[in-house]
Design a protein that fits this description.
heterodimer, A: 102 residues, mainly alpha, Helix Hairpins, 3 helices, elongated, B: 176 residues, Four Helix Bundle (Hemerythrin (Met), subunit A)
């Protein structure tokens, strides 16, 4: 069978890749893609711990469902913001969106 | 090495490779297609963890809704950032360094996890009733009905917010 540590290492790697995408990419849509990767890594961890540590309690799966809902709302609002900014300023590069910077 | 381990290794390699391509491809359309591949790999891993319902939800919500939404956003904002030009900012090495540090830190923390050595998943007592249990736990007053309601309010707020934010201001259009 598959050891739990394999799932944990995979989730950690997926999270780090997503973090790199969030920190390094210039395009705001690409940053959102990185966030989706990170949320997926979190979900993977939740389900792996549910399966290996506490399969009797359904908490792991229930929380994974919550993470799905949060990810869906985050994507909807984030992309709406990006589209609105694009319409007003014709840019989606994160460093050019500096209205609140001083 | 059992067949399950081989399937896991293939799915894991596929997921990680696709994820790497998501964050490195300069062409955003390609990046979003690789994102779909990576999400599908995670769905396979959910199946390996015997969470079939979550695998289906992963395909329907992530691949069916979120990835399509991202592809639409890429297409609607495509003209500004052409495929040429730098796609990463000046401090990309700092981002890579901090991602590596986080990865190393997480690996270091794994020794603290009590069940990290468990090579076998625990037996599921009532495998057939699992989905029913999940459904009931989400509406049970003594279990997760409050997070469930909060999530539904959050979804409603996100829906209204997305509509309000993305809609062009009606007054300005009328004046023009």
């Amino acid at each position: 069978m598959i050891p739990l540590s394999w799932f944990l290492i995979l989730a950690a790697a997926l999270f780090s890749i997503g973090l790199y995408g969030v920190l390094a990419r210039r395009n705001a849509v690409a940053i959102l893609m990185g966030i989706e990767l990170m949320l997926n890594a979190v979900n993977l961890n939740l389900v792996a711990f549910w399966r290996y540590v506490a399969p009797g309690s359904i908490a792991g799966q229930a929380f994974a469902v919550m993470v799905f809902a949060v990810a869906a709302s985050e994507a909807a609002v984030g992309l709406a913001l990006i589209l609105s900014i694009y319409r007003q300023r014709s840019t989606v590069a994160a460093e050019e969106i500096n209205l609140l910077k001083w | 090495m059992t067949a399950l381990q081989i399937v896991f290794l293939i799915a894991a390699a596929f997921t990680l490779l696709s994820a790497l391509l998501v964050v490195t491809r300069p062409n955003l359309v390609h990046a979003s297609l690789w994102l779909i591949a990576s999400l599908a790999g995670v769905a396979v891993l959910f199946v390996l963890l015997e969470a079939g319902f979550l695998a289906a939800v992963q395909v329907v919500i992530y691949i069916g809704a979120i990835a399509i939404l991202i592809i639409f956003a890429v297409m609607l904002t495509r003209r500004v950032m052409s495929d040429s030009g730098p796609q990463v900012n000046r401090n990309w090495w700092g981002a890579a360094l901090s991602a590596l540090l986080i990865f190393g830190g997480l690996l270091g923390l794994f020794s603290q996890v009590p069940a990290v050595g468990s090579a076998f998943p625990a037996a599921i007592a009532n495998a057939d009733g699992l989905l029913e249990d999940l459904g009931r736990s989400l509406v049970d007053v003594n279990r997760y009905v409050l997070p469930f309601e909060v999530a539904s309010v959050l979804l409603l707020a996100a829906m209204i917010g997305a509509i309000v934010i993305a809609r062009p201001a009606a007054r300005e259009e009328g004046e023009e």
